[in-house]
C-alpha cells in the first residue's frame, strides 16, 4: 500500500495564452511548454524561471515530444505542420506536413526508428526518424483522433477518436487489429501498461481495458469533466489524472483507489481553469492549462 504527499514547489508564469502541451527537457532541470502563444518556451526548473524561446511557431501547438537520445523536439501544430527542432543548436531541421487539419498527437516508435503523428483528419502519418521521409499514411478514423500511445515494446499502437472508439494497430505493417466503442463522447487521454489500456474521455469516464480484445476490466468516474491526461509515475505503481474540472488526482494502479485529490476545494493553490496537459519529471509532477501557468508539484510516494 502506498501513500502520496504533494506540495506546490513553484508556479511558472509568462505565457500569454492557454497552454496545451508540455515535454521534458534534455535533463531534469528543464522542460518545454507551448500552446496558443507563437513560440515554444524552455524553462529552468532550478530557478523556476523562463530560460529561452526555443523557436517561434506560425500556429498553435497541440503536441510536443522529446527524442532525448537524438536531442530533438517534435512540435505538432494546428496548421498541420510537424516540426523537428534540434534543441542544443536551436535549429529547425525539418518541416513535415499532413494533408489537412491540425496535428493533435505525436509519438516516436524508437524500436522501429519511426515517428507517428495524427490529428484532425483521422489519418496517421509515419515518417522515418533517420531521413524524415514519409513511409506510411493510413486512415484510422473518419473523425478526429486526439491521442495515440505505443504499447510497451512497440509491437502495437492504440488510438482514441472523437466518436469514443479505441483502435488498435499492429506496428510492423500498421494493419488494423481491432476497434471498439468505449466512451459516449471523444477519447481525450490514453495510457498503456504491459497488460492494460487505460482511457479517459470527454464523458468524464475512465476505463481499464484488456489489450487483447478491449474488454472492460474496470470503470470509474475520476473527474467531473473531461479527463485530459492519464500519467503513470515513472517508478511507483501509481498514476495521476488531470481534468477540465481543474483538479489533479493520484491513484493506486492496482486497486484504482484514490490516494490524493489536489483541488482548490482541498485547500491547494491549484489551477483556476482547465488543466490541459501534464508530465512527470522524476518525482515532480507538472501541470498546465487554460490559466496560462505551469504548476510544479513535489510528490513523495511511500510504501507503507
From TrEMBL:
WD repeat extents: 12-53, 220-252, 268-299
Keyword field: Repeat, WD repeat
Family annotation (SUPFAM superfamilies): WD40 repeat-like (SSF50978)
One Pfam family of this chain: WD40
InterPro entries for this protein: WD40/YVTN_repeat-like_dom_sf, WD40_PAC1, WD40_repeat_dom_sf, WD40_rpt
Official protein name in the record: WD40 repeat domain-containing protein
The organism of origin for this protein: Sphingobacterium suaedae
